[in-house]
Design brief:
Number of strands: 31
Distance between the termini: 62 Å
Largest sheet: 17 strands, mixed
Number of domains: 3
CATH architecture of the largest domain: Beta Barrel
CATH topology of the largest domain: Porin
CATH class of the largest domain: Mainly Beta
Helix content: under 10%
Strand content: 35-45%
Oligomer: single chain
Length: 495
């Protein structure tokens, strides 16, 4: 039971009234003690509601759950987390497929919560005037998170702890990544060192700091090419290549951790996808291949939806013809090129996630931080296809396809878009037609609504005051051998 429930206000009022009707030293003393306890209780309750961090990045599905205690309470609904939202002790931070959440804490620490993850802030106490009393404690229930130690952890390493369902992680001043499920946990070090141990009788989840269990193991950045796998039976050090596809990019978050902002060559063992290949992300909208997105409601779409359909344009536009330089740039999340891709995009190093406009989990397009700040309210324009990338998803990973031509029409006054791409892949007979139409929102996001009929998913963003647009797409296809798959990619447009 929380402390503030032990002394109900009504009970205190009755007690106070009784004591005031009596005179004497002991009654006054008791009243003073009760008053002090009540004020202390109020202070503790207020302190538990203090802001201890702020959301600095939220991409895709990222929710919070705020409860009086860490235990779940029936009927409490998660709320969507956005940049600028405050974080408090007891908050449960949750991400879905393709979701990313970055938190900056009051002592300068950072936590990056990866897709399909859940992190509980169990304790966080920091006083710059009395750093020795600081306490930091997290619980990663599932998924992956990256922790960059702040002033609290650096000052009192014996009062920092990150628990998983089976492991305890204590620090030595560190930047590290934890990946976990209920069966095992993995820890990777970028800088510094950690002490890890399986939870058990000699390593309690309630304790703080590194465990001194006989099964405890030190892992440091000096142990090049190794990571730690923790199971109930013990800790093993294994080649890091086994988990490279699950790791965050080593320079994430570059804009937040300036002391780690090093321009350097990223080797293949460190590069990683931002999301599962084929997870489409645009602004605050994302979904995985084969899913059915929620149909959005447009500001000006309305009855016009029934009057307009996706048109097959007669003209074929030459990619990139007669356009001013683009303000948007390509990048990719992995060093390994897509099989058959002749001109891979540059590897993303030191990314600024707030500038990412769209991603398909393999490639991404970045723009200026104000790229979506101005969206025209009038005019209808045909856009020119600058360039595009496409791939076929296979069991061994994506293989490159080819986009031959495309059309994109946006009616800013009506709030409507329609588009078509003509593409091909060696494993598919004939041309692949990617078509979509739907509403354009005031914030520049657009999403197709014809998915139930064609299976095509399209989400995109208007940028550069309406002069450019980008979108990601996916379409179910059947290969020449009869295998069902998905054809997905990104496109960049201008006018």
């Amino acid at each position: 039971m929380p402390l503030f429930q032990v002394w109900p206000l009504g009970a205190l009022s009755d007690m106070t009234r009784l004591l005031l009707n009596r005179r004497g030293f002991f009654s006054r003393l008791f009243l003073g003690l009760v008053g002090a306890m009540w004020l202390t209780t109020l202070a503790l309750a207020a302190g538990s509601r203090e802001d201890i961090g702020e959301v600095v990045l939220s991409v895709g599905p990222a929710d919070g759950l705020r409860l009086p205690q860490a235990a779940a309470v029936s009927g409490v609904q998660p709320y969507r987390l956005s940049r600028g939202d405050k974080v408090k002790v007891g908050d449960r931070l949750m991400t879905g497929p393709g979701g990313h959440l970055h938190i900056r804490f009051i002592d300068g620490a950072f936590i990056a919560v990866r897709p399909d993850s859940e992190l509980l802030v169990e304790e966080y106490r920091y006083d710059k005037d009395n750093v020795g009393l600081s306490t930091v404690k997290f619980r990663l229930t599932k998924g992956a998170a990256r922790s960059i130690t702040g002033r609290a952890g650096e000052s009192v390493k014996d009062r920092f702890r990150l628990n998983t369902p089976i492991a305890a992680v204590g620090i030595r001043g560190t930047d590290f990544v934890v990946i976990t499920d209920r069966e095992q946990s993995s820890v990777v070090i970028n800088t510094g060192a950690v002490v890890i141990a399986p939870l058990g009788q000699s390593c309690s989840a309630e304790a703080l700091g590194p465990c001194s269990s006989p099964l405890a193991q030190l892992l440091s950045a000096d142990m090049s090419g190794l990571y730690a796998r923790i199971e109930p039976a013990g800790v093993r050090l294994l080649p890091i290549a086994e988990v490279k596809s699950k790791l965050p990019h080593p320079d994430e978050p570059a804009s937040l951790a300036s002391r780690l902002n090093r321009f350097r060559t990223v080797d293949a063992s460190q590069a990683a996808y931002i999301a599962t290949p084929g997870t489409l992300i645009a602004g605050d909208v994302n979904f995985t291949l084969g899913s059915s997105p929620m149909q959005p409601v447009s500001d000006a779409f309305g009855d016009a939806r029934s009057q307009q359909v996706s048109e097959a344009y007669a003209k074929v536009v030459n990619p990139g013809a007669s356009l001013p330089p683009s303000s948007l740039v390509w990048g990719r999340w992995a060093i390994e090129p897509i099989l058959g891709e002749s001109n891979p995009a540059p590897v993303i190093v030191n990314p600024e996630y707030s500038k990412m406009l769209v991603s398909d989990g393999v490639n991404a397009i970045f723009g200026p931080s104000d790229a979506r700040s101005i969206v025209p309210r009038e005019g209808k324009f045909d856009f020119v296809l600058r360039d595009a990338r496409a791939a076929l998803m296979t069991p061994s990973g994506p293989t490159a396809g080819l986009v031959h031509s495309g059309q994109l029409s946006i009616d800013f006054a009506l709030g409507f878009f329609s588009t078509r791409l003509r593409a091909s892949h060696d494993a598919i007979d004939g041309m692949i037609s990617v078509e979509g139409y739907g509403p354009l929102h005031r914030d520049g996001l657009f999403q197709s609504v014809n998915q139930p009929a064609t299976g095509t998913n399209i989400v995109g963003v208007v940028a550069n005051a309406g002069k450019e647009a980008v979108y990601v797409f996916s379409k179910p296809v059947t290969t020449r051998s009869g295998t069902a798959s998905n054809f997905f990619g990104l496109s960049r447009w201008g006018r």
